[in-house]
Design brief:
The chain is of the alpha+beta class and 143 residues long. Helix content is 22%, strand content 30%. The chain has a single domain, classed as Beta-Lactamase (2-Layer Sandwich), CATH 3.30.450.20. The protein is built from five helices and five strands. The protein has a five-stranded antiparallel beta sheet, sandwiched between helices.
Length: 143
Amino acid sequence: LRLLTHWRDLVARDLAGERDYPSFSELDPDSIPDIWENAFVLDISGHTEDPLFRLVGSKIAGYSPFDLRNLPVSQAPRDSLVEKSVAFVQEVISREVPISRGGEFLKPDGVRVLYRGIILPMSDDGITVSGLFGAANCREEKV
């Protein structure tokens, strides 16, 4: 919820109310340091069917055995926090609204993972969605 509040605050900076989305240039890692390490940026320009990871925070990167940067979301490791965090990306693209999802899954080693993720539409011009900003975190429990 904190990231959604931050996103809404960025939109609200437009006092004239002429835009629907914040731009990537407004994102400041120092203003959300604990979220930033769990964050990712998805490029949808020319990649709406299978967006590309452009930025991957250090904590969320730790849930992948390989570097995700410049890879399509379809290559996210199965049964991982990364895969679950981008599973609803097409819904965000089609509805052009922030969406948050949570749930649980079992990792291959039998550890249960409780997670929550959010994906937010971003825009270069304030009107047209040009990319997505997301974040996810989790808690692991031995079964």
